[in-house]
Structures are given as C-alpha cells and as structure tokens.
C-alpha cells in the first residue's frame, strides 16, 4: 500500500508543478512520516480528526489534477 503522503512526496520530486496544486502537501507528508515512523505516540482521535477534516480537500485537489491530466 502506498500512503498518500508517500505518493505526494514522490510527486513533489517528479512533477513540482502538479505538486503545487495539492493543498497542504508538506503537512500531509509530515503527518505520514509521524504515522509511519512512530516519531511520537499516535493519538487516534487526532488521526481521525485530521483524516476527516483533510481528506475531502485532498480528494478535490486530486480530482482537479486528474481532470487537468485528461485534457
């Protein structure tokens, strides 16, 4: 499984222009690093809050990139 943060990190290296269209890209990547590498004790409520609040915006950004790519 590829974490969204991992994929976005790769995107920022491969296509910086596309990556610029992702809101909060750096924060998403940083959050992924905390989750995967266990830099701190994971707060399940915080993870749920971030996912619930941020996932819709990320979905909009990704759909826009997909639409742009299809043109």
Descriptive overview:
There is one protein chain. This protein is mostly helical and 71 residues long. It has one domain. The protein has four helices and no strands. α1 crosses α3. The protein is globular and about 45 Å long.
Average pLDDT confidence is: 83
Largest sheet: none
Domains, number = 1
Q: Which structural class do you get from the secondary structure elements?
A: mainly alpha
Gross geometry? globular
- Rg, Cα atoms, Å: 13 Å
Tally of contiguous helical segments: 4
Order of helices and strands: HHHH
Compile the SSE list and pairings.
Elements: H1 4-14, H2 16-19, H3 25-37, H4 44-70
Helix pairs in contact: 1-3
What would a concise description of this structure say?
This protein has 4 helices and no strands. By secondary structure, it is mostly helical.
Observed structural traits:
71 residues; mainly alpha; 4 helices
């Amino acid at each position: 499984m590829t974490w969204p943060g991992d994929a976005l990190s790769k995107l920022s290296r491969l296509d910086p222009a596309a990556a610029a269209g992702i809101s909060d890209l750096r924060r998403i990547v940083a959050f992924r690093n905390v989750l995967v590498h266990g830099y701190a004790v994971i707060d399940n409520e915080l993870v749920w809050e971030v996912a619930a609040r941020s996932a819709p915006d990320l979905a909009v950004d990704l759909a826009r990139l997909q639409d742009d790519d299809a043109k």
